Amino acid sequence: MTVIDRYLKPDMTLWQGRPDAPSGSAMFQIAQALDLSLVQPGQIKRPGFALIGFACDEGVKRNRGRPGAVGGPPAARRAFARLPVHREGVALYDAGDITCNDGNLEAAQQTLAGAIGQLHEQGLTPLLVGGGHELAYGHFLGLTKSFPGQVIATVNIDAHLDMRPLIEQKLASSGTPFLQAADLCKRLGIAFNYACIGAQPSGNTKMLFETARHHQVEVVTAQQIEPTIDSVAAHILSQIGSKHEVNYLTICLDAFSVAVAPGVSAPQPTGLNPTTVLPWIRLWAGSGNFRSYDLAELCPLLDQDQKTERLAAQLLFEIFHHHKFVDA
Predict the structure, then answer these.
(1) How many structural domains is the chain composed of?
(2) Which residues contact 269 (CB under 8 A, 6 or more apart)?
């Protein structure tokens, strides 16, 4: 399959909302199509976000998880479309989806990396929605190409460290992206800077924690987080976010409690509460240090009352309204 074969143009019929909403008051009214197969250099003239989907759960399947996250991107769009807009002068584009219909995850990750590069070339801030967390390696790879030689400081809100070795030393999965990122940094001769917030001891083996220590990963387990204060967010920002020009926030929805996020491959009975996490996102997004964002593991097939897709939309809403554009 070619790059074009893996790219789905934006489907603007997903952007629907109340017909009586005042003009420009909701996300569905400001979203514009951005066809990456046709975009020209310098086409975008003002600050904005590009929502792009990674319609793939091949990595989840390889990791022996529950499939269904392939349907995450359209579900997130439908939920996000209905939310209000409280910020003026910021563009929102739908840049379509990267797919993996042939099971070739590695090729899909390469295609995703190219798409992330295109968005940054246009001066846009990516909002990537999956899909399995295997999207993180494609996203990270794209950032290293967009910002060559620079450290990509990664903050991951996740129940899992996702630092498993490649399957049979060659196949990626939803459990491997950050060990892949560490290996890529070694090959490129740049530092690997990674923090995982919300890791569950019951969801990670002793070997995985040892791998994280070996790579000097900043790990804050779910049990170490105090929900009434923002010290965790401030600490991470001081340790990782403010030291580097290129910072990347990735959020795996399985970090949250199953009460609010049942629609994931690996639900967490002792996961995080959104009221704990949302202030972190506001702080980080508003710091001016973050250049790219993604949400992973939205699985509509396993959702209940659209709880998880609504949570995903709320996270996108917070980023949209609090992100500080670098050149703004």
Answers:
(1) 1
(2) 257, 258
